Amino acid sequence: QVQLVESGGGLVQAGGSLRLTCAASRSIFGADRMAWFRQAPGKNRELVAGIPSSGITNVADSVKGRFTISTDNAKNTIYLQMNGLKPEDTAVYYCNMVNYGMVFWGKGTLVTVSS
Questions:
Q1: By C-alpha distance, which of 99, 104, 115, 95 is closest to 39?
Q2: 3-state DSSP: the chain helix, strand, coil percent, rounded to 5?
Q3: Dist. CA 113–CA 115, nearest whole Å
Q4: Which tens digit of pLDDT belongs to each residue from 23-54?
Q5: How far apart are CA 66 and CA 31, in angstroms?
Q6: Is-contact 35 96, C-beta < 8 A?
Q7: Cα dihedral 54, 101, 8, 14 sign
Q8: pLDDT tens across 76-103, in order?
Q9: Distances from the Cα of 60 to the Cα of 1, 63, 76, 82, 83, angstroms
Q10: Which residue among 12, 15, 19, 54 has the highest number of C-beta atoms inside a 10 angstrom radius?
Q11: In a 3-state reduction of DSSP, which class is residue 73?
């Protein structure tokens, strides 16, 4: 089992920045994939950005050029740097880990972007 704990969410004005942090309870080195998802009210959960074991990051078109995912293996931590935030980025953001076919989720952190 892996526990994932997100932090860093909050209320920010449009155009602002936030950095989300996900702390894992054990090593993330070599995981099949680490990722951030989000779920807006009334919408399905969607992939925001991911880092598979190849290390080649992928980012959703809707946030490309504004959001960056990164990891710190020494700290077992995953980050999501969000710049140029828009009201449509308002959602609960979830940390996700896939390893050996098992999927783990954090409880999420709320990001609210005001116009």
A1: 95
A2: 5, 55, 40
A3: 7
A4: 999 988 889 999 999 999 999 999 999 999 88
A5: 25
A6: yes
A7: positive
A8: 999 999 999 999 999 999 999 999 989 9
A9: 28, 6, 23, 13, 14
A10: 12
A11: helix
